[in-house]
Amino acid sequence: MDGFLEWVAVFSERLWGYPLIGILLFSGIFMTVKLGFIQFRYPIYIFKQTFGSVFKKPKGEGTVTPFQALTSALSSTVGAANIVGVPAAIMFGGPGAVFWMWVIALIGMALKFSESALAVHYREKNEQGEFVGGPMYYMTKGLGMKWLGIWFSFALMLELIPSIMVQGNSIATTVEESFNIPALWTGITVAVLIGIVVFGGIKRIGQVTQVVVPFMALIYVGGALVILFMNLNMLPEFFSLIFSNAFSPAPVIGGFAGAAIVDVIRWGFARGLYSNEAGLGTAPMAHAAATTDHPVRQAFWAIGGIVVDTMIICTATAFVVLSSGVWTNENAYENTNGLTTIAFASYFGNVGSILVTVSLIFFVISTILVVIFYGAKQAEFLFGLKASYAIQVVYLVAIVFGAVGAAEVLWGFLDIMLATILIPNLIAILLLRNKVKELTTEFFTSEKYYLKDKGKTK
């Protein structure tokens, strides 16, 4: 059994090395060019249409507001990867990995824009009158490949069981270490609280996430901003460290062992993709429920999600870790998971440790909340509405089992199962590239949308 698990770990690491990163990079660059570099040409307009319109009544029809759809999608992406993944990238790839994290985020925006536009375009109403959509719907309706939609749906539904167990384990161990509360009690409490929300559907999830996500992001990023203002003089050094190591091997510094240029790029890309989930097909399920008058307008919110997740929250973590110098400590290599906590504690003492712990708890709970909704949508697509309630119960039980450590054997399978979701979704995006282009051209040339917003109608 140990030999098999070791083989799974090695295969998983190789798969998520050059093969998948190469496919994602090609797909992201291809769609960026196909869409005329949309994320670079219209940043101010996109900002005005998203965060600049939070308090305006949305046009069109949908189940939740565009902001609620974004916070639901962010609940899934903003998590342990932002707190634990960034220092791991720095320790194994050096400070230059942060630059490549930014690069893959900018390129990934085209993929997230595409999948979200397709999700809204091909969405439909379920038995409860709620809008539902996502890769399984655009694979079925857009490509006429229901088999591909079933593959994606079934793989995601199964992948979420060990994923939720791992999330349950991370929150239970964090709470046990910080507050000495038994893991089982944490698992049961989290399962009950999440159950109350998820059985209320996307409307209740949206109502909860629109409060929790900004709150948890403000606490965490707010703490990082305080550190930034305390160390404004270190800002040039921060960027110098990142840019000077982005294109050359990271040198040995203190306890940091250095890294080859190939590792700098690989770790930056891998952690960036893990964090923002561009091309994975999960976020479009949240965006499909949004109230909007055109698929492209909602897809702008998907671009905004990457800005918040990677460009703001991951960068905040990187600044705290690099400016504190903890990444060069003697034993830093052996404790990448705890580096962010140590970095915050070096500035704020015990308050810093508590801030990271509380942020992690909020991040993980909100992630579980939304991925259970994603899993329920797969069951609904495959077997109907009643099946979605049954799988939600399975997921809630998985939280409790995960909390007491039952997921450890499944860790190695997670990345392989993620690949079985990612590949069919990227195939679908590339095959539907002309539809995405058509929707984008329609939005920017029609007098009902972009031209009207810019006051260029006749």
From TrEMBL:
Pfam families linked: Na_Ala_symp
Topology relative to the membrane: Multi-pass membrane protein
Record keyword Membrane present: yes
Primary localization class, coarse: membrane
Species of the source: Jeotgalibacillus proteolyticus
A molecular function (GO) term: amino acid:sodium symporter activity
Cellular component GO terms, alphabetical: plasma membrane
Keywords: Cell membrane, Membrane, Symport, Transmembrane, Transmembrane helix, Transport
Membrane-crossing residue ranges in chain numbering: 15-38, 69-93, 99-122, 143-161, 181-199, 211-232, 238-262, 300-327, 347-375, 387-407, 413-432
InterPro entries per record: Na/Ala_symport
Coiled-coil stretches: none
Subcellular location: Cell membrane
The protein's name in its UniProt record: Sodium:alanine symporter family protein
The family this protein is said to belong to: Belongs to the alanine or glycine:cation symporter (AGCS) (TC 2.A.25) family.
